[in-house]
Write a structure and sequence with these properties.
With about 180 residues, the chain is α+β, with helices and mostly antiparallel strands. It has a single domain, classed as Aminopeptidase (3-Layer(aba) Sandwich). Helix content is about 20%, strand content about 30%. The protein contains three helices and nine strands, in the order βααβββαβββββ. Strands 1, 2, 3, 4, 5, 6, 7, 8 and 9 form a nine-stranded mixed sheet that branches. Helix 1 runs antiparallel to helix 2. Bound molecules: coenzyme A (COA). The site of coenzyme A (COA) has 16 residues, from strand 4 and helix 3. GO terms for molecular function: acyltransferase activity, transferring groups other than amino-acyl groups. InterPro entries: Acyl_CoA_acyltransferase, GNAT_dom. It comes from Spirosoma validum.
């Protein structure tokens, strides 16, 4: 088990690109589209660069987390969490948690009202995520309700509602084959 004090979270640098793309391929095996998403997000204005985070243990990149800006029909800008991946050998050793806590701490002092994500319902509630549909936050496509989750930040109000428009880097994922 990794000593949590040895997990260093910092912004991704260009010298990390190869490692984070390899990480996406390994964590999301056999789906190579996440590595492609990582490349598209990096090249996009929608990326929240302060939240393009890697987790490093000794000299190795073992986790990667990205956020981008999404719009909702009420006019607000939201923080969209995707992707979050940890190298298989390093999973369940609190690396994902270290990345999540770093990002949420930053977001709590930001103007963003809400974080949204599509993710496993067994993981994200431990950080305070709740089902997004009951808040009036809807995805732009059909999703199992339990995977569509939101985290209310200090800037949240019930005026934040409607349908979420994903930024352009996600378009290729939602085109029917
Ligand atoms: C999901 C993922 C990011 C979690 O990162 P991680 O570093 O393994 O998670 P952590 O060690 O921080 O987990 C914290 C707690 O959640 C639990 N947990 C981890 N993954 C879980 C999962 N998929 N479902 C439910 N609980 C999970 C851990 O056992 C741990 O429990 P504990 O506090 O009782 O010890 C990582 O396992 C991963 O990369 N998976 C493959 C890619 C993926 O599915 N990404 C997310 C898409 S939604």
């Amino acid at each position: 088990m990794i000593d949590p004090l040895t997990i260093h979270v910092r912004q991704e640098q260009s010298s990390d690109h190869q490692a984070t793309e390899a990480l996406a391929l390994a964590a999301f095996d056999p789906d190579p589209r996440v590595a492609e998403l990582v490349r598209r997000l990096r090249a996009s204005d929608s990326l929240i660069t302060e939240l393009n985070l890697v987790a490093q243990v000794e000299n190795r990149i073992v986790g990667h987390l990205m956020f981008s800006r999404a719009r909702i029909t009420s006019g607000h800008e939201l923080a969209l969490l995707s992707p979050l991946g940890v190298l298989p050998k390093f999973q369940r050793q609190h690396i994902g948690s270290a990345l999540m806590l770093h990002a949420l701490t930053w977001l709590k002092t930001s103007p963003y009202p809400l974080v949204i994500l599509e993710g496993v319902p067994s993981y994200y509630p431990r950080f305070g995520f709740v089902a997004a549909h009951p808040l009036g936050i809807n995805p732009p496509f059909d999703l199992p309700p339990a995977v569509w989750q939101a985290y209310r930040l200090p800037a949240y109000s019930t005026q934040v509602r409607g349908m979420v428009h994903y930024p352009e880097p996600f378009d290729f994922l939602h085109i029917e084959p």
